[in-house]
Design a protein that fits this description.
about 110 residues; alpha+beta
Length: about 110
């Protein structure tokens, strides 16, 4: 229930334009978990950005805000859950690249 309320507050809409969503691995409304504080979550927005509380933006921008403005690598700091296990989205990114599911260069 809390995840759905957070998703609604962040304006989550369904869509599939982002490469990781096209690969069927991340979807709008899905929760991400902040590695430095398991109580902090974000939801994925339809345009690929994330929203945590009142902050929305790229994975890097939101992570940077959460660590007080210090440089932050969102790939390493955001976790997704798969089969009951939390893993960094960097691992997911590597999986996609190794399977050739995206032409994304970043």
């Amino acid at each position: 229930v809390a995840r759905h309320l957070a998703a609604r507050a962040c304006g989550v809409a369904r869509g599939n334009g982002h490469p990781r969503r096209r690969a069927g691995l991340l979807v709008p409304g899905q929760a991400l978990y902040f590695a430095k504080d398991p109580a902090v979550t974000a939801v994925i927005l339809s345009d690929g950005r994330i929203c945590s509380g009142q902050v929305s933006g790229s994975i890097h921008h939101v992570a940077r805000q959460l660590v007080g403005g210090a440089p932050a690598n969102g790939w390493e700091l955001w976790l997704y859950e798969e089969n009951g296990r939390k893993q960094s989205i960097h691992q997911l990114r590597q999986k996609i690249k190794s399977q050739g599911k995206t032409d994304e260069k970043s």
